[in-house]
Amino acid sequence: MIELNDVTKIYDGQTVPAVESLDLKINEGETCVFVGPSGCGKSTILRMINRMIEQTSGTITINGEEVRGTDPDHLRMNIGYVIQQIGLLPHRTVAENVAIVPRLHGWDKDKICKRVDELLELMGLIPEETRDKYPAQLSGGQMQRVGVARAMAVDPPVMLMDEPFGAVDPIVRSHLQDEFLRLQTEMRKTICFVTHDINEAIKMGDTIAIFTKGHLVQHGTPQEILSKPKNEFVRDFIGQDRVVKMLTLFQVRSIAKANPCTIHEDELPNIRQKMKEQQARGCFLVDQSEAPCGLIIAEDLERESDASQERLKELAFSRRGAFIDQHLLLSDALSYMLEWDTDYLGVMNGQDLSGVVSMADIRECASRKEGD
Amino acid sequence: MNWPRMLDALSRIPHDLSIHILMVVIALAISIAISIPVGVLLTRPRYKKWGIVVMNILNVCQSFPGMAIIALAMPILGLGLKPAITALIIQALLPIARNTIAGLNGVDPGIKEAAKGMGMTPKRVLTEVEVPLAMPVILAGIRTSAVLVVSMGTLAAYIGGGGLGDLIIAGLNMLWVEFLLVGAGFGALLAIAFDRGLRYVEDRLTPPGFSSI
């Protein structure tokens, strides 16, 4: 647990504090994302935790121990630290880079070797291929991975990450974020994570702390921040698409309804009756092997009341993409609905159609969460 | 061309050249031993403010003509090899100190930050990160100084320091072209040899996976 009490930092030669009387508590095993515009003091706070910067006043404790009472080098050896510039030593191989902190801890060679391979594998790198390379021979994404592996080398309980995925392109960043989230669910480390990207904050954070001009504006779970922005600044910072962003917090399966209405091709003439019986507004066409291949919605049937079997099939096939994996997010579902011009989507569990999600469900979910 | 005189000049080469090399090596070794620690100190936060003062003093030393330093060394230190070496040291200090400072300041701050943030002590950051990464620039400074000292060493003969300067001064006084050719020629060859040799060391010491300058 990291606790900051009434922490203030005024840089030499400046009168305006970079951080002013900050109180913040980060629980054990929690990822707290510091977010805010440039110069809001978020990096300063992070760097005060491992004493790269000394606070002007106030106390910072890690698990009850005040950081100012410990030897700074010893303190830092036990805190994982990842920075945007990554800072791999260019004259050392990947393995030597990862081994830096274990070496400072005085581990023996065999233990270090084993740990290095383990970490590279954990970060999705092939040890045999990367171990002996120099940083200059790696891609941006690989360097970031090595940077994170290096910070985790001695399995520190606390990690400080200053825009750790800032230097890679959006696709690689998204990959790295997903992988790190997966790791974090197992590791449950206490993490302080700095970013200026609200979307990254929503994705990575158990809690989000929003800063401006050295002050903490709001600290809460992503859902709290998105549903109840404290003031105009937070509202602006989140952006106009606040509610759509909130939809990114939920997976489709959390609101999907089971037992979707399905129909085989030869039953198409009876589709109206079937949908009426099941009170469904959308009906999925499935083939002999029960694999979904299309969707007919009630509006189609109302518009073309005398449509032939062939025409119905044609309409169904025109929405052959209206299916979505159950792990995708509600915001993705919304996008699919707009793309395929439908209020209904089939929810897939692997290859099987397991449920249905509708626009009404999404609206209900959004308004319910707004009201929480 | 007077062949007997040429042979006479060449027969003096082993003696003069070895004194010249000795002079250069000692002067270079001492100036490295002074300049690098000074350069390191002047890039530490505590002593940074002295940087401009020290660099200005070294700049002044550098701007004295070589001949003037040799001449000044004589009334203070007398004649012989020792004052000659002292004069050479004064000239060799600046390029090494300057490059040490430039090299250390040129190390990517992100790398230093990461090293410190991992818990390396300032001493470890210096020896394991900063110095290895600044090494190519420091060695380039040593190379500059080496060539400078080899050429200035020929002036040492004026205050009895010996070396290849003996041949050149004799040649000038007697108007013996052969002595001039041999003395100046070997001086030039020696400068090239030092430059090449140090460049080789530089290549060997440049960290792998690191682009040389």
The stretches of 5 or more residues of chain B where confidence is low (pLDDT under 50) are none
The CATH architecture of the largest domain in chain A is 3-Layer(aba) Sandwich
Helix/strand/pairing category of chain B: mainly alpha
Helical coverage of chain A, percent range: 25-40%
Q: How many distinct beta strands of chain A?
A: 17
Count of individual helical segments of chain A: 17
- Tell me the quaternary state: heterodimer
Radius of gyration of chain A: 26 Å
The CATH superfamily of the largest domain in chain A is identified as: P-loop containing nucleotide triphosphate hydrolases
CATH top level label of the largest domain in chain A: Alpha Beta
Question: What's the mean pLDDT score of chain B?
Answer: 89
Q: Could you say which overall geometry of chain B the principal axes of the C-alpha atoms support? A: elongated
Largest inter-chain contact set: A-B, 31 and 24 residues
Structure description:
The complex is a heterodimer of chains A (372) and B (213). Chain A is of the alpha/beta class. Chain A has a 6-stranded mixed sheet with strand order 6-7-8-3-9-10, sandwiched between helices. Chain A has a 4-stranded antiparallel sheet with strand order 2-1-4-5, covered by helices on one side. A 4-stranded mixed sheet of chain A has the order 11-17-16-15. Chain A folds into 2 domains: 2-246, Rossmann fold (3-Layer(aba) Sandwich); 252-371, CBS-domain, CATH 3.10.580.10. The model of chain A has no long low-confidence stretch (mean pLDDT 90). In chain A, α5 (109-122) packs across α7. Helices cover 39% and strands 24% of the residues of chain A. Chain A has helices at residues 42-49, 72-77, 94-98, 100-104, 109-122, 127-130, 140-151, 170-187, 198-204, 222-227, 232-238, 242-247, 271-278, 298-303, 309-317, 330-339, 359-371, and strands at residues 2-9, 19-26, 31-35, 57-62, 65-66, 79-83, 158-162, 190-195, 207-212, 215-220, 257-258, 262-264, 282-286, 292-297, 323-325, 344-349, 352-358. With 213 residues, chain B is mainly α. Chain B has a single domain, classed as Orthogonal Bundle (MetI-like fold), CATH 1.10.3720.10. In chain B, 81% of the residues lie in helices and 0% in strands. The N and C termini of chain B lie far apart (44 Å).
